[in-house]
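Input/output pair, single chain:
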Amino acid sequence: MNKSLLHVAHFRGKREQPLHNVFIHAPTLYWVEQGRKQLWWQEQSYEFNRANWLVVPAGQYLTFVNTPMQNAFNARAVTFFQPPPAEWLNEEVSLSAAPPMVKVTDALRYCFEIICDMSNKNLSAHTQQQLLLAFYAELRHIDALHLLFPSENQLVRDKLATYLSAAPGDDHKIEIAAQHLAMSRATLTRKLAAEETSFRHILTEIRMSHALGLLQRKFSQMDTALACGYQSEVRFTQRFKEQFGLTPRQYQMTL
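Output:
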């Protein structure tokens, strides 16, 4: 397929993992299959485990602690790049009052496993799109789709983040990104400023989130720094700690 519909990532740990300000650049669903995740969300605390999903729209920052059970923490995260039909998102629902939690049912579990596995089945792009729509339909059926997609109007920030996340370590230029988004550099800069962010800020956030995934895959600290566009391991370490509240080495020790 030319365009990815979703991305599945695995997160593991053997020790407690406290993380601050984890940037969610696209709608994402987390399923903790072993252990638990304690999340602080809008001044409240929520616990996630096998019985419920954490569902987060684009542009959020998460602060949480992953706690192993029987010396192991395992979770899957599915990031969605293809939105549901716009008419499904026109229902007026207050996102601010809703906790980011969905109770796992047999139907949801069945649909979840299908979309996680479909990229391995040599299915056509059209078939995969229909399977993803079926998953969205099941979320809509229980009035939970708005937790992932609160609006049909995607922010410029989120469009840029999705573009940058395809290759976080590249030497990205704002002019090229603006061209990809079909606007001038000045327009992109102005729109991002209106959304209280900037090109450099979003790029840094994307690279830090990418670093977590690479460390999960046992990349060395130096290789992770290089893959995230940093030539200096010291500078990378400083930025990582500033973002998440612990150093890359401390994070590696939890894996």
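The mean pLDDT is 94. Residues 17 and 250 are 9 Å apart (CA to CA).
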